[in-house]
Amino acid sequence: VPFVPREGNRVSWYGCGPTVYDASHMGHAFNYVSLDIMRRIMEDYLGYDLTVVMNITDIDDKIIERTRHEHLVAQYRAKAETLSEQLVADVGAALCDYANTAFPELVAAKLGSPIGRADDWRAFAAAVNGGQDPALAASSEKALMRYDAADAAFEALVAARQSLADGKSSQAAAVALVDTATDVLAPWLDAQFRESVTDPRLFRNLSAYWENDYMADMDALNVRRPNVLTRVSEFVEDIVRFVQRIIDNGYAYEAEGSVYFDVEAFDGTNGHVYAKMSRRSKDSAKLLAEGEGSLTKRRAEKQGERDFALWKSSQPGEPAWPSPWGPGRPGWHIECSAMASEILGQNIDIHTGGIDLVFPHHENEMVQSEACFENHQWVNYFLHTGHLHIAGRKMSKSLKNFITIKDALKKYSARQLRTLFLLTGWSSGINFSDTGMDEAIAIEKTLSNFFSNAAALVRDLKQAQQPADPKRQTNEPEIELLAALADARDQVHSAILDSFDTPRAMRAILDIVARTTAYLQRGRESIDPQPVEMVAQYVTKIMRAFGMADDSATRAIGWGSGAAGTAGADRETTLLPVASALSDFRDSVRELALAGGDKKALLALCDRLRDQVLPELGVVIDDHGDGRALVKVVDPAEIRRARELSEAKDAAKQLAKAKEAQLAEEKRLALLEKAKVPPQDMFRTPEMRELYSAWDESGIPTKDAAGEDLSKSRAKKLAKDYD
User: Fold this and answer.
1) How many Cβ atoms sit within 10 Å of the Cβ of residue 325?
2) Which of 384, 495, 546, 715 has its CA 20 to 30 A from that of 60?
3) CA-CA distance, 360 to 691, in Å (whole number)?
4) Per its UniProt entry, which superkingdom is the organism in (predicted)?
5) Cβ–Cβ under 8 Å, residues 220 and 32
């Protein structure tokens, strides 16, 4: 559908931000980089005036649980001065509770009764075939992760018992047991001591730490920060007023200190509709329960099964804020409605988030807001990014099958990750794999080579260009290249307008790059720099609009970062490393000349300057057939990364060759061993006597182990082996 902003060129945009309780992973990267690409296109390419608001969820059941768990385990670890029978008993009890809670139906089916002793875990593990039983994975989404945690705790428990039996009870052994069993110990400690966690600073400190960590990751991924950042903890009073207005309008009710949205009272009243985007999911008990949070176990006060919490009365061990209904905290969904509306008003152009937020989160946001303002459309356009999968499973903090952004950036650059996401498209799911990343790396290299070649050739040709020839006419190759550029512009623009179809736009970009690269193969004497420069500048413009190139770059062609220097860099910092390298080269040449060196040694010095010294400084020299070198300025980090990748691939090839050679040698030795056996004995070995019971005078079997004559075909094959 056409995009029609409410106020001309101004666009209001609210994006669901992270719940900050752990490290950000590649699922977050796909979501926020994809949304950043769309934002940049709207701002930098289409020229919209955006106001982007994003929230930080710093009050949430997951944050509360994580804070308590980390605090209680840390306290417990500090008290574990030695490995003791009590510590072993505690971990055993925690394991029993954990297993019975994680796999209640499966434990009952496999064992007939709940796990009562830690050693019962061994029987359960055997019953589920060491975690390989399909029934385990089918029992719940998190079953395999929980099984691994319980099994690790049990193995640590067995090792701890052996240590005690051997008279070893060091603090290091105690800490090792606690650390390995943390996942099973934490809920066990929480069940007993949660009410003792009363310091509100603990909750604030955890969320503040992970918020800063998230922001650092986004900066590393070149994601623009929102114009306005909101935190739930800073908007509690606004949320209370928002909830009260919903109550006053007749769409919510208070019960035992909590406030619930009344879905039945809303749906169908005054033209209101519940679950506009997900009619099929609106009665999903699983999704409804997940939307309420892990600490919201109290359902007796709810009037309807689909009703959801706007305000939660706080229990001991939970942070609380004052409200007309008693001390409590905001529900999950209400925070976005209140904060977005407080900043952007009663009607918003764009709302973004991951596809998993459609129901119940975004549906509940909509009905809350429409109930508060008595309107029928709080958001005009929802944009939901797809899931990122790894090994076929959705990447998730709660599933613990995630690759953190920091770990990914140790292996790949931010530009390479963004390239992958551009090739995938924001609304499609993505399977994060080495194969996909290899393609992204290859495309980034293609673009980098194009930029450096085009920039260097344009610079050299402009410098060497003779005065304009009035009789010169544009040749057919230039006309074709300009026509291809015009076509690429049209294709990219059409793709961008078609729901930000970046895969199609990238195909058009790569096509014009390939055409221009082919044109450059004509040689310097046959190249017109102007169309090449036009193509390179256009590709640079689109790459900047996609967030691939440096925003602050002053260079008209290329990524705009690295060895070319940044705006404001002083001349000494920029020139001194290269000048020093050239000075060292001059010294070596003089020394060689004075010593009467030969031509071969001089060329070796030149090669060293080209292949080793200058690349480290971001300068690449390409030798051309016409005897003139092409000088290119490239980010030295890219050169190092490419070299490391090449070396890693070479090492992998060498390892594969070594393994192949080893297998060949083992096969050769095995054949030599066989060759030591006389032909008449080859079918009389102990292994063969289990297969045959009679032999002829040459030693060839005639009967099988049961005394039956061998078939003609089998006898013929044995005779062939004998020969």
Assistant:
1) 20
2) 384
3) 66
4) Eukaryota
5) no
